């Protein structure tokens, strides 16, 4: 019993990535967003993170359907992986391509879309 536990503990240390991606669900996406994006964009993506106050440019409000529903996945992928300057926006939006895999960037986009959707449902009923 105890030995099985030790083997499990060791494999969790050695293969955290596998365990993490097997999780590949909404909770895992939320966690990546919370740890890396929320400091500026806020926990619910409203652009009100603690760092937002220190920036001369307001971080985007990912929950605003009027803005986000006009953004293609391709554009979102570009600004997330290459940073604001890649799409002619502020360099205060950092580039994340070196830190996250393509799959994780897709997961982040899915998470951003879920932040927008929850608002659209309640305010306008738009579902895109
Ligand atoms: C250091 C603060 C900071 C962090 C951390 C940060 N961002 Fe940003 N982000 C910004 C700012 C500032 C803008 C607005 C740029 C502009 O309007 O010119 C922005 C804009 C964006 C946009 C564009 C939205 C639009 O209106 O088109 C997306 C998408 C985005 N960020 C996603 C992310 C994701 C995903 C993460 C985490 C992996 C993240 N950001 C982390 C500061 C940050």
Map the helices and strands.
Layout: H1 2-14, H2 16-23, H3 26-36, H4 38-41, H5 65-68, H6 73-82, H7 102-123
Helix pairs in contact: 3-7, 6-7
The structure holds heme C.
Heme C binds at residues 36-37, 39-41, 51, 55, 57, 59-60, 67, 71, 76, 79-80, 84, 89-90, 92-94, 96, 108, 112.
Short description:
By secondary structure, the chain is an all-alpha fold. The chain has 7 helices and no strands.
Task: Throw out a few tags for this protein.
Cytochrome Bc1 Complex, Chain D, domain 2, 56% helix, 128 residues, 7 helices, single chain, binds heme C, mainly alpha
Structural commentary:
The chain has 128 residues and is mainly α. It has a single domain (24-123), classed as Cytochrome Bc1 Complex, Chain D, domain 2. 56% of the residues lie in helices and 0% in strands. It is built from 7 helices and no strands. It has helices at 2-14, 16-23, 26-36, 38-41, 65-68, 73-82, 102-123. Helix 3 crosses helix 7 (102-123) and helix 6 (73-82) packs across helix 7. The radius of gyration is 17 Å and the shape is elongated. The N and C termini lie far apart (49 Å). The chain binds heme C. The site of heme C has 24 residues, from helix 4, helix 6 and helix 7. Residues 36-37, 39-41, 51, 55, 57, 59-60, 67, 71, 76, 79-80, 84, 89-90, 92-94, 96, 108, 112 line the site of heme C (HEC).
Helix and strand element order: HHHHHHH
Question: Based on the structure given, which CATH architecture is correct?
Answer: Orthogonal Bundle
CATH class: Mainly Alpha
Distance between the termini: 49 Å
| Overall number of strands | 0
| Helix content class | 55-70%
Using only C-alpha atoms, the radius of gyration works out to 17 Å
SS-derived structural category: mainly alpha
- The global form is elongated
Count of helical segments? 7
Low-confidence stretches: 120-128
CATH superfamily: Cytochrome c-like domain
**What fraction strand?**
under 5%
The small molecules bound here are: heme C
Total number of distinct structural domains: 1
Largest sheet: none
Quick check: average pLDDT?
Answer: 84
CATH topology name, in short, is Cytochrome Bc1 Complex, Chain D, domain 2
């Amino acid at each position: 019993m105890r030995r099985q536990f030790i083997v499990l503990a060791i494999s969790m240390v050695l293969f955290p990535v596998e365990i993490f991606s097997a999780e590949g669900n909404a909770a895992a996406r939320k966690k990546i967003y919370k740890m890396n994006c929320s400091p500026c964009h806020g926990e619910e993506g409203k652009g009100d993170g603690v760092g937002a106050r220190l920036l001369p440019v307001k971080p985007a409000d990912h929950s605003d359907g009027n803005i986000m529903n006009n953004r293609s996945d391709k554009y979102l992928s570009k600004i997330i992986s290459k940073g604001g300057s890649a799409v002619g926006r502020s360099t205060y939006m950092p580039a994340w391509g070196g830190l996250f895999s393509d799959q994780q960037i897709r997961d982040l986009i899915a998470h951003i879309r879920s932040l927008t959707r929850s608002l659209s449902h309640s305010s306008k009923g738009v579902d895109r």
